[in-house]
Amino acid sequence: MDYVIDTLGNLIHQSAFFNLTVGNYIMIVVACIFLYLAIKKEYEPLLLVPIAFGMLLVNMFPDIMLSPAESENGVGGLLHYFYLLDEWSIMPSLIFLGVGAMTDFGPLIANPKSFLMGAAAQFGIYVAYFLAIFMGFNDKAAAAISIIGGADGPTSIFLAGKLGQTGLMGPIAVAAYSYMSLVPIIQPPIMKLLTTEKERKIKMEQLRPVSKLEKILFPIVVTIVVTMILPDTAPLVGMLMLGNLFRESGVVKQLTETASNALMYIVVILLGTSVGATTSAEAFLNIDTIKIVVLGLAAFAFGTASGVIIGKIMCKLSGGKINPLIGSAGVSAVPMAARVSQKVGAEADPSNFLLMHAMGPNVAGVIGTAVAAGTFMAIFL
User: What is the 8-class DSSP label of residue 127?
Assistant: First the structure.
């Protein structure tokens, strides 16, 4: 009888109820809020559901992220091995492969001026970098945090791993993906504040047709030019352009379908859950996390505003032919930021159609954020 009582007592005391801290319970609540936003509000559910669930798991069973060195039997936790693929930059690069395979670069090729708005939207990254230095972060940590301003989760994870800022990877990734999912809420007020109703009603001319040859040459030329200037961008830009070459070449349909569907979704599951699992209460509930969240919001706001401002300048120079709303799509959240440009434009004039025009700055923003990351790597590595 004593044996049974002792066994039951051991089982009860090994349960999570006797081992969780107040911080763990707070993080469990946060995870449930994220799940609500992802499922009920549909805020970037493909990413937010696995991230939130990884957050939930690690705060109930911390050993799921246990490294082999800390384990008694030399075997690490399940999500630790997934996380290694993030640290080694494998997952972010594969995400870019899938994004390239799903994205039509035609609007950017048809309107190369879009590069200016995509580049301008990266201004928030550099503002956040200097703000992070002011707040006490070192150069590498500030660089990793600032990439949140590009609204590009994979690039944020990639740069944090490359610069050795794995301790900040969880808060950085969660902030980046949270702001990506909140694009429809954060951007419209900034866009409306910086534009007049007359500007928002501007209808843009239909984009010129882009030939197949142009679409095939574009990823090849961009890869050569960008990696020759910034070789450190090769993993991201190279995979992005390879995926797009799969799509546009028309001769590897199976590879295109695999990269944009099965592989992409497998990677999202592994990356999302492992990133979420870095947000244990001990790692997440501290002053640095609050700073990162604030810096990320500032970077994202500045990026959106600078894209719209350049759009306004281009509107003036073009004689009112460019709707400045498409400049906000210069952040890297593809294609959500472009959809927001379309939505705000349609609110001013229901017959306005800006989506394809906004995809130009949107795609340029993806490339611009990767270039910004490559610039930081060239400086600090």
Answer: H
